[in-house]
Amino acid sequence: MDREKRQKEHAPLYEALYQYKNSRQASFHVPGHKKGRAYATSGGAGFLEQIMEADVTEIAGTDDLHHPEGVIRDAQLLAADCFGAEESFFLVGGSTSGNLAMILSVCTYPGDILLVQRNVHKSVLNGLMLAGAKAVFLQPQLDESSGLATAPAAETVTAALAAYPEAKGVLVTMPNYYGMGTDLAPIAEACHRHAVPLLVDEAHGAHYGQHPELPISALASGADVVVQSTHKMLAALTMGAMLHVQGPRVNRGLLRQRLAMVQSSSPSYPVMGSLDLARRLLHVQGAEAFTAGLAAVKALKRGLAELPRFGLLQPKEQQRGTAAGAATAAYTTQDPFKVVIYDRTGVLSGYELQHRLEACGCIPEMSDDQYVVLLYSLGSTEEDTCHLLAALSHISVEKANTQPLHAASVKVGSTHGQSSGARKPEEKSFVEFSTWNNFSGPSFSEPVSFSLVPLDPDEVEAIPLGSSSGRTAAEMIIPYPPGIPLLYPGEKITGAVSVKLQGLADAGAKCQGAQDPKLRTILVYKTAE
Predict the structure, then answer these.
(1) Which CA distances in Å does 490 have to 347, 451, 493?
(2) 336 has a pLDDT exceeding 90
(3) Which pLDDT score is estimated for 40?
(4) At what angle do helices 350-359 and 382-396 cross, to 10 degrees?
(5) What's the rounded Cα separation, in Å, for the pair 125 and 107?
(6) Cα separation of 369 and 84, whole Å?
(7) Contact 250, 197 (CB under 8 A)
(8) What is the DSSP string of 23-79?
(9) pLDDT above 70: residue 425
(10) C-alpha distance from residue 196 to each of 185, 187, 226, 260 (Å)
(11) Residue 324: phi, psi to the nearest 5?
């Protein structure tokens, strides 16, 4: 076995934790549960006990996340090698902490401008607030066949950079929650021509570039800073994520300082150890790590071909039975591990299809008014697929109602949010929120200021949602999952947005940030009398 292979098989942080777990050392340090022994008199800590045995702090041999010199440093170096970065950082606060840190690293003065894709995760808007930055929102491209948004066009980025040459960088999300993507390389080239970094929230793409059947990674496309949720699509514990950096366009010393600011000074060693293990799995097995998961996905697609009631979201060039032609620039890649289905008859909304799947013991990742997102991974099996296909087969033969269960919905596209009435089979008409953006008109906005100044209660009021058109939002409305704000404080509520929000309320969508979680009312700024 050569030296390089031995290094890849090494998991320095995990091995240090394993050694600690099996040691007989007496603990005179935190955490207070003392390897879980605090629960011994109450019958133990159950399934958490083994995790507690490896739940350690910064003692001799376990290193320090915020000043790594030993096993954490070695584990991060191996991660950089595995994911193609110049430097990698472990995150114990999920991609949220990475998004905050990368924004705070480039927006260093109040009022700094950052070009931001409008349909971003709420953590990006929170990062803008922490930085006191101004956002120039970039309109994302829409895939016409699905009505779903991906990333801005390179031409939009170029035009915005020309209009705002003082911008500190560009931040986009790729892939979206549905696994849809487009080519990031032209966006990276546009950024670098203007000498600014490209920041990518790649939370759902930690596996990208690790197998020939997977899309290319953001790093390989030229991004400068990339944040990945290793726990989402790879094999780390929840909250385990990584931040990768390359090139000279970001101050790495400042980035380290920002990471220390937004992460706990007492980081979870089990989470960090799982990051080390997730990296080792890829480093050792390579593309073969995805063989079983991809086989499970292919088995599902074969099964779906026998269930014509259910459609499958994919780029046009991958669709069977359609005329030849390239996919639109908005949607050229699809993560094979994100299987997105819908009821072609229009009888079952995405929400209703999810409820039926859950009743059959299959738990989807998320749904919207039309689509259900089924998340596969390198841990999925063909047994999982058999269970899912049995559930879909059962649902498929259910007696269809004469009318869709949601008689009114919001149509994406030329109607711009007008009610479309009852859906006909195959009609793309739905209340879409998960990657939708409420920015219309020019391809990019004027600078929008963000700050941490709290709302003055005397300046805001709660009004019925139906009366909100034309008013200015005073709160964030964040359907969850996936946590992409439809509104931020200070944003004007258009008629189309008001109709979409009403559709979400009627559908029972879960929203964070809203003072009224059922969206019967919405908080707005008072108008001058």
Answers:
(1) 38, 11, 9
(2) yes
(3) 80
(4) 120
(5) 13
(6) 38
(7) yes
(8) --PPP-SS-TTTTTGGGGGGT--GGGHHHHHT---S-TTT--TTS--SHHHHHHHHH
(9) no
(10) 14, 11, 14, 24
(11) -65, 145
d(CA 402, CA 393): 20
Residue with tokens 């076995």: 1
Round to the nearest angstrom and report the end-to-end CA distance of the chain.
Answer: 79
**Cα–Cα distance between 314 and 11 in angstroms, integer?**
37
Do residues 145 and 316 make contact, with C-beta atoms less than 8 angstroms apart? yes
Q: How many helices (H) and strands (E) does the chain have?
A: 15, 20
42: pLDDT strictly greater than 60: yes
Around 509, how many Cα atoms within 13 Å sit in the side-chain half-sphere? 32
Return the C-alpha torsion angle 152, 154, 159, 161, nearest 10: 90
Rounded Cα gap, residues 529 and 15, in angstroms:
67
Q: What pLDDT does residue 318 have?
A: 62
pLDDT at residue 410 tops 50:
no
What is residue 19's predicted lDDT score, i.e. its pLDDT? 92
pLDDT band at 99 (very low <50, low <70, confident <90, very high): very high
Among the listed ranges 57-61, 256-260, 277-281, 439-443, which one has the minimum average pLDDT value? Answer: 439-443
Q: What is the pLDDT of residue 48?
A: 85
Query: Percent of the chain scored above 90 by pLDDT?
Result: 70
CB atoms within 10 A of CB 155: 13
Q: Give the mean model confidence (pLDDT) for residues 27-32.
A: 87
Predicted TM-score (pTM) of this structure: 0.88
Residue 431, amino acid: V
pLDDT for 39 equals 84
Do 236 and 273 meet the contact criterion of CB atoms below 8 Å apart?
A: no
CA dihedral over 504, 506, 512, 514, signed as positive or negative? positive
Q: What is the pLDDT of residue 505?
A: 82
Those residues with Cβ within 8 angstroms of residue 253's Cβ, 6 or more apart along the chain or in another chain: none
Order of all β-strands in the sheet with 170-173: 87-91, 241-245, 225-228, 198-201, 170-173, 113-117, 134-138, 448-449
Q: Which two tokens stand for residue 148?
A: 């779903």
User: Distance between alpha carbon 121 and the CA centroid of its chain, in Å?
Assistant: 7
Is the CB of residue 473 less than 8 Å from the CB of residue 524?
yes
Q: Is 200 helix (H, G, I), strand (E, B) or coil?
A: strand
Q: Which two tokens stand for residue 45?
A: 């800590």
| Enclosing H/E stretch for 457 | none
